[in-house]
Q: What sequence folds into this?
């Protein structure tokens, strides 16, 4: 319970800082502690740090931070992909050691497939070229979709690639190329979602959602069965949570199942919300 309370405190603290960051400049909150905190966090502290850095290192730390920030925001890098993998693997590491031995052979077979598919589709989404428009494929790409005269107009030129923009294409500032039928740049796959990999991306969403649902249903089923056995065991002489003679201490093993389910659910949530 102590760990949970600490996690809840950290989440609350981060949520409060996010609230201050986004809403601290609202006129409605002027002359409130929220506005004061916003100025402290985003004006006074950065100014103080910049002037200190100027005095100590001639501004080198500030310019390095700025370069790093630009790289993180506007270049391709697998940081979020690694974070996504860590969530996926972390959820499974918490879930499987407890749940796997209790699964039937059928659920072990289907579970193994459900676990592997998101990794396969993540790899295919990330490694497949999203549909780069090059000199070689520019002519067929121009004929691929008609212009709708609303979002896409004939004659528009990409100022970076210096080519006419095919309908439904977009220049990605992160990938630094024009992408055919571009949907969005997804930081979770470190790639654009375009004409050539949309199907892999949708399969990644579907397989991750199915894994979450499947894992959640199995986890709840396992926990319910054990609670029933535990109740029966208590009535028959305090045999404990599992009701299999392993005693009360085994109850602690079941907590990771729930945590794992929550972790994987979070993964699906952030993936779905990632664009726009
Ligand atoms: Zn372009
Ligand atoms: Zn991109």
A:
């Amino acid at each position: 319970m102590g760990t949970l309370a600490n996690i809840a405190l950290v989440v609350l603290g981060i949520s409060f800082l996010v609230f201050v960051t986004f809403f601290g400049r609202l006129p409605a909150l002027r002359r409130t502690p929220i506005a004061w905190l916003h100025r402290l966090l985003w004006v006074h502290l950065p100014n103080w740090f910049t002037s200190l850095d100027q005095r100590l290192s001639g501004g080198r730390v500030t310019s390095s931070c700025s370069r790093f920030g630009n790289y993180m925001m506007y270049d391709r890098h697998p940081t979020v992909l690694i974070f996504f993998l860590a969530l996926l693997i972390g959820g499974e590491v918490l879930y499987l050691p407890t749940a796997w031995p209790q699964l039937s052979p059928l659920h072990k077979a289907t579970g193994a497939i459900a676990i592997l598919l998101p990794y396969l589709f993540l790899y295919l989404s990330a490694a497949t070229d999203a549909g780069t428009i090059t000199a070689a494929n520019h002519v067929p790409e121009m004929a691929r979709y008609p212009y709708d005269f609303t979002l896409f107009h004939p004659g528009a030129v990409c100022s970076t690639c210096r080519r006419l923009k095919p309908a439904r294409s977009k220049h990605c500032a992160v990938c630094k190329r024009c992408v055919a039928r571009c949907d969005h740049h997804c930081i979770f796959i470190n790639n654009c979602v375009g004409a050539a990999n949309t199907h892999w991306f949708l399969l990644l969403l579907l397989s991750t959602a199915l894994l979450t649902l499947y894992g959640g249903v199995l986890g709840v089923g396992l926990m319910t069965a054990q609670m029933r056995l535990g109740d029966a065991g208590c009535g028959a002489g305090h045999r404990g949570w599992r009701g299999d003679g392993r005693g009360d201490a085994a109850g602690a093993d079941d907590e990771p199942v729930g945590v794992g389910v929550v972790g994987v659910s979070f993964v699906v949530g952030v993936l779905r919300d990632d664009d726009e």
In short: The chain has eight helices and six strands. Residues 10-74 form one domain. The mean pLDDT is 87.
